Amino acid sequence: MPELSYRRRMLVLVICAMSLLIVGLDVTIVNVALPSIQRDLHAQVSGLQWIIASYTLVIASLLMLSGSTGDRLGRRRTFQVGLVIFTIGSFLCSVAPSLGWLIAFRMLQAVGGSMLNPVAMSIITNVFTDPRERARAIGVWGAVFGLSMALGPVLGGLLVDTAGWRSIFWINIPIGIAVIIATQLFVPESKAAHVRRVDPIGQLLVILTLASVTYAIIEGPSHGWTSTEIIGFFVLSALAATALGWYETRRDEPLIDFRFFRSVPFAGATVIAVCAFATMGAFLFLGVLYLQDVRGLDALHSGLWLLPAAAMTLIFAPISGRIVGSRGPRIPLLIAGAAITAGAIMATRLTAATPALYVLGAFLVFGIGNAMVNAPITNTAVSGMPRAQAGVAAAIASTSRQTGSSLGVALTGSILASYTGRGAFGAGFTHASHIAWWLVAGFGAAVLILGAVTSGRWARGTAQRTASLLDPVPGVQETTEAGVR
Q1: Do 332 and 236 belong to one domain?
Q2: What is the average pLDDT across 357-384?
Q3: 134 or 83, which is more confident?
Q4: Beta bridge mates, 262
Q5: Strand, helix or coil for residue 264
Q6: Residue 47 C-alpha from the chain's centroid
Q7: Residue 285 and residue 211 share a domain
Q8: Would the N or C end of the chain have less CB density within 10 A of its end CB?
């Protein structure tokens, strides 16, 4: 790709980051609206889980297909199609007549969302070729997510309290239209020089693996963990995962190139992403329900209570990016793991009478951990990989995030449902939430340990060897439309 001017690169970064803004807003706004949706649509606990999990599950299932599609058909084109579908899905969510339709439209929204972040990250990777500049750009990317985290709870609470929960989906529509136009005007088209073939069997096995395990976890409390149906779905997930590994390693151009995982930093970043974003999904799910159903706050005030955690993401994500660019991912990963673990342990003591300063302190510490983790995950996933496969590498990292978020909501929600019943939360919520927070602390500890193990000299050596193995045509990585300056 011809070198773009600094100003043009920054403009591309802003455009790509706007897609992250609407996706991030959607996550936090919907979480704040869950109690209102529960009352309006008479949703049970599993229904609330599916509102969140259906979105993240579809995104996780399609991210790798979207990443490879962008590499194959054009990243700008794929990015724009995703924006169109996401915008239409947002409108349909706002007019959903029932819980079932809302979940269905959330899944449509997720189809578009799967084409945004991995493809945008691939665009950024190919525009910012200098490693240090790329790390700083990824830090800005993380800061935009922090901005969406900061705006989402407050904006969502304001919209829910003034115009109802349906209004939370309206915010995506004007932003989506503006980004579609800006992308056409300023983002250069790019493709991988080597076009990879479609892998429908691999895609089906990915969907079966993720969907069956998520269904089993969410529906386990209501159907019984030892029921034939739930055990059957767990077995189906294991069989699909096994078949995926067997099939993909025998394809010349697999959907998931398992050679990526010969890189210890890449494999570590993948698992860290699952653990870290499981904590994030759980934090939003548990935090909002605690604030509104236990402390009795309205949507707006619960959003304000979440603001410290969001503000930490806005502040510390760019710092994390700069540290990654100058010192590598080790320090941010260690800080992230320690802070997530500490924040979750503090949250195990939350009750209806817990002092406000303690609650805000727990949220703040957790927010610091979440802010520090995204830049090292993203940078490790794409750094050292051939630029021709940047879309696939970024999509695997994004898939790990969404898978983690889906599992976090599914696991913690199932814990709540097991102790409180399928309907409204009762007296068992506090005890159940403490168990769920200990699970979150365990995920945080995993981030800490894996961050230490996968960021040393030996691990970096495996990344270099993997990159040389994956580069099919050294020196000829990209094609681009003529006339791009």
Answers
A1: no
A2: 84
A3: 83
A4: none
A5: helix
A6: 20
A7: no
A8: C
Cα 42 to chain centroid, rounded? 28
Single residue among 214, 236, 252 that ends a domain in this structure: 252
Residues 204, 186 share a domain: no
Q: What CATH number does residue 166 fall under?
A: 1.20.1250.20
Segments of 198-331 assigned E as strands = none
What confidence tens digit (pLDDT) does each residue in 413-461 have? 888 877 765 544 555 778 888 999 999 999 999 999 998 888 777 777 7
- Can you say how many angstroms the Cα of residue 186 is from the centroid of all Cα atoms in its chain? 26
3-state helix, strand, coil in the chain (%, to 5): 80, 0, 20
473 has pLDDT over 60: no
Largest Cα–Cα separation, the chain: 65
Looking at this protein, which amino acid is placed at residue 80? Q
The answer to whether residue 485 sits within a structural domain is: no
Return the axis-axis angle of helices 264-289 and 390-420, rounded to nearest 10°: 40
**Res 483: pLDDT:** 33
Specify if 481 maps to a domain. no
| Number of separate domains in the chain | 2
Query: What Å distances lie between residue 62 and 47, 189, 257, 356, 391, CA to CA?
Result: 22, 21, 15, 41, 13
H helical segments located in 385-476:
390-420, 429-453, 457-470
Domain span at residue 427? 6-190+253-474
Q: What angle do CA 108, 111, 113 make, to 5 degrees?
A: 110
Q: Which two tokens stand for residue 66?
A: 């979207």
Q: Is the dihedral of CA 418, 300, 141, 23 positive or negative?
A: positive
Chosen domain end from 233, 252, 271: 252
What sign for the dihedral angle of Cα 35, 40, 41, 43? positive
Domain shared by 236 and 324, yes or no: no
Q: How far is CA 373 from CA 287, 337, 406, 485, in A?
A: 20, 8, 18, 34
Residues 72-119: tens digit of each pLDDT:
788 899 999 999 999 999 999 999 999 999 999 999 999 998 888 778
Lookup: tokens for 48: 């609330």
Residues 273 and 328 placed together within one structural domain of the fold: yes
Q: Residue 83: its pLDDT value, please?
A: 94
Rounded to whole angstroms, the Cα distance separating 53 from 214 reads 8
Domain assignment present for residue 429? The answer is yes
Same domain, yes or no: 311 and 241? no
pLDDT 10s digits, 151-199? 777 888 888 888 889 999 998 899 999 999 999 988 888 776 666 677 8
Does residue 482 fall inside a structural domain?
Answer: no
